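As promised in the previous annual report, we have extended the structural survey to additional targets. Below is the entry for M18 family aminopeptidase.
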Amino acid sequence: MTADAIASEFAQYVTESPTAFHAAAAARDRLVAAGFTELSELDAWPTAPGAYVVVRDGAVIAWRLPTGATATTPFRILGAHTDSPTFRVKPNPAVRTLGWEQLNVEVYGGALLSTWFDRDLRIAGRVVDADGSIRLVSTGAVARIPNLAIHLDRGVNDGKEIDRQRHTIPIVGVGGDVGGTDVLGWLRDQVGDEAVSWDLFLADTQSPARIGLAGEFLASGRMDNLTSVHAGIRGVVEAPSDGDHIPVFAAFDHEEIGSSTPSGAGGPFLEDVLGRVQEGLGATRSDAARAFRASWLLSSDAGHLVHPNQPEKHDPTNRPRPGGGPLLKISANQRYMTEAKGEAVFSAACDQAGVEYQPFVNVNTIAGGSTIGPIAATRLGIPTIDIGVGLLSMHSVRELVHVDDLAALHGAVAAFLAG
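The corresponding structure token record, generated without further manual editing, is:
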């Protein structure tokens, strides 16, 4: 596919994925449409060669079991995450203040808070009904976190601390005491009378857009880390069904808050799936350990392009540029897991795909973030490489990527999964 086609397809995926639950469901739907069989964790799984997918809450794992796979066949795993910084709706969410109806929320993850002000926001998430069934919901634009006018705070542009409780509560309507709508009653209307509980979040409503003098950029929300999720979907679909390894795509939830959940990279989801696949192949504990040591995990998460207005925040000799290809993340303190053997594997994948890659390290005075790589590697013992597409404005409500980098990431991921 061309870079334009990949950008268009990715933009559609983002639009369908306001929350991790939606992202996992949209990934599953694309995989099922491509011939993957959806499995339930409550059922016995088939052991025959084929393509399979399973969803756990906001996480999704898919794999191709090739013909001739044995108890010691290694895995090639693309790891990503479905969640992004946002706001979660609290219990008893109605707040009535001086004629305004507001929604009580709490910050989820390391959001760049200032970018969420004065945006048209929707409410989205999952709803659990009395019979235990689960539905995904999403409203139109209903909420806004309002800035204070500069006339009332002349020093606001000199830097102002954002109080996470007082300053980030969105308005959603006019208070009921002046003829408006009650928040809880409105939510009940949206989710249905049969709903007994829900996990709801705020999400931006602005569609992804191509910008730049030549349309070379894509501006969108949730590119950290749906860029990697989308590349993983396409990569496992294109992976061969008769190779010498088992291609796996694993997208976890809760990376932005530490990953220590049943559907996070620190939880047992991937280990459960890989173990059941190996059990179906008749693997002993020794066989499984041998397979893991011969496997590779490519942890793909967005990284930072050099910022043109603040280059001092970047390493002086490693400054990833837009259009220069995906980032190979390296860290002396192992916040990223890449070492020389892993770099050789990723370099071979990029050569196979015909794309360049760029090394990324943090400047020594800034610790930077981390990824699912160290978490999954510690849990599984599988050799791991950290990569990702370069962005500007990471954790903003609206991030920026070069479309050629998006396409290059897809090519490198597909080549890695193909082996």
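The first helix runs from residue 3 to 15. The mean pLDDT is 95. These points will be discussed at the next consortium meeting with the crystallography subgroup.
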